[in-house]
Amino acid sequence: MDDARALFAGQRQERLRALLVAAALLGLVAVALRQPVLAVAGFAVALTLVVALAWQRFGLVAVRYRRRFSQSRAFPGEELWLELSVENNKLLPLPWLEVEDEFPADLAFPGLQLDPSPKPKTAVFRTLFSLRPYERVRRRYRVVATQRGYYRFSRVRLRTSDPFGLALAACDDAATDELIVYPAIEPLPAFGLPAKQPLGDRRPVRPLLDDPTRYRGVRPYVPGDLPRRIHWRATARTGEVQSKQFEQAAMPALALFLDINTFEHFWEGLDPEKLERGISLCASLAAWGLEERCQVGLYVNAPRAGGERFIRLPPSRHPRQLQRILEALALLVPYTGYRIELLLGAEARLLPWGSTIVVITSVLSEALRRTLLALRREGHAVTLLAVGVDPDLPALPGLTAYRIEGGADGTVARHTA
Asked: Cα–Cα distances in Å, from 346 out to 191, 212, 281, 343?
């Protein structure tokens, strides 16, 4: 299409040059024959064609087109502003400038009429500007982030012409802008999980060790406390035996494993509703875990756009950890044939001791069941969140398991030790 346009523009320019030569020759011949009316007409046509060719040559020189969002990150349902600006940084005015911009079709643009595009998931926005010399024009449009994803605004085509409409100039601008829409974060009861201890008892089989350098306070003595932990001054003051309390050697770690497979076999495709429900649940658990002062990590058996084969974010309480997790989920590319139990087996051995492992999946296989039970025996607290699976969950002794569906209360079954 672009090659055809370029060929047509080149042919049109050649015709205009030929007409310019013919008009100039006509004017010269008319002067030689002392025909003033014909000479004026010939030179007028030649001058018009010179102006048209000059506009074609310099019309889009020093013209700058920009997009700017009021924010580059958003959540589903949020409304933001897209500002389009055009600058004409030269003396030559532009009677009209047509902008043809490609917008992602999965975003909503209230009040705008968009044309269909041959490209998938793309719509075309057309608008006209009129620019005086060294003028900048700005226009603002509403954008509604309708669903999670990574949206690129890249190709834009600019067209202009002389005042007579004889010579058309066009160019493409490949400047790229991006908008990232995070997955929705909801309260955990919206998924059917209890508000208190939504993941059940997260204590590991073998608890974390205390750090003797991080003194926290005292508590009443219980049988089994070592003599060196007795706080003698507090004991003398209260008349009861008191033991020292220390912080644990590490903050509790919460490792979220998201399985993007929604069918037993990857060639069966994906169920978008189940996938988005699982992604939103994963984002909500990450936000909850960080609020609970846990180290939170994310592992997904799928890549992010432009990233490695799998998403790996080790557990951390860095101030930007939630943003990293949300961006990874927003840029997630839902394509993989890799099984979640293989990712679990490879990554679980690298997790901090006593980590809580949460698996979010829509496919419950026998291999996954064996892997979860093995992780529990190794000392991890394990929770299974099954999104949209059959009502009967397999026997998982020692694990907490929920079946998650849509609606305000998605809890259908729960198994505990």
From this structure: 29, 33, 23, 5
CB atoms under 10 Å from CB of 179, counted, come to 22
Report yes or no: 283 and 184 within 8 Å, Cβ to Cβ.
yes
- Dist. CA 119–CA 127, nearest whole Å: 20
Radius of gyration, alpha carbons of the chain: 33
**Secondary structure, 3-state, 119-161:** CCCEEEEEEEEEECCCEEEEEEEEEECCCCEEEEECCEEEEEE
CA atoms within 13 A on the CB side of 368: 25
Give the class (CATH, top level) of 188-205+250-415.
alpha beta
pLDDT 10s digit of each residue in the chain, 417 long? Answer: 444 444 444 555 566 566 656 655 655 666 677 777 776 676 666 666 666 676 777 888 899 999 999 999 999 999 999 999 999 999 988 888 999 999 999 999 998 999 998 888 899 999 999 999 999 999 999 999 999 999 999 889 999 887 776 677 888 887 789 999 999 999 999 998 888 888 876 555 445 555 555 567 788 888 777 777 788 888 888 888 888 776 555 568 899 999 999 888 777 788 889 999 999 999 999 999 999 888 999 999 999 887 778 899 999 989 999 999 999 999 998 877 688 999 998 898 888 777 899 999 998 888 998 999 888 888 788 899 999 876 666 677 778 888 887 544 455 445 444
- Tell me if domain 63-181 and domain 188-205+250-415 are identical in fold: no
Rounded Cα–Cα distance for residues 137 and 247 (Å): 60
Q: What is the DSSP letter of 107?
A: S
Q: Cα separation of 53 and 160, whole Å? A: 12
Of the chain, the end-to-end C-alpha distance in Å amounts to: 65
What would the two tokens of residue 193 be?
């999980």
Long-range contact set of residues 169-174: C-beta below 8 Å, sequence gap at least 24:
169/55, 169/56, 169/57, 169/59, 169/60, 170/5, 170/9, 170/60, 171/60, 172/2, 173/65
Q: For the CA atoms of 21, 22, 25, 29, what is the dihedral angle to 10 degrees?
A: -170
Q: Which CATH class is domain 63-181?
A: mainly beta
**What residues does each domain of the chain span?**
2-58, 63-181, 188-205+250-415, 210-248
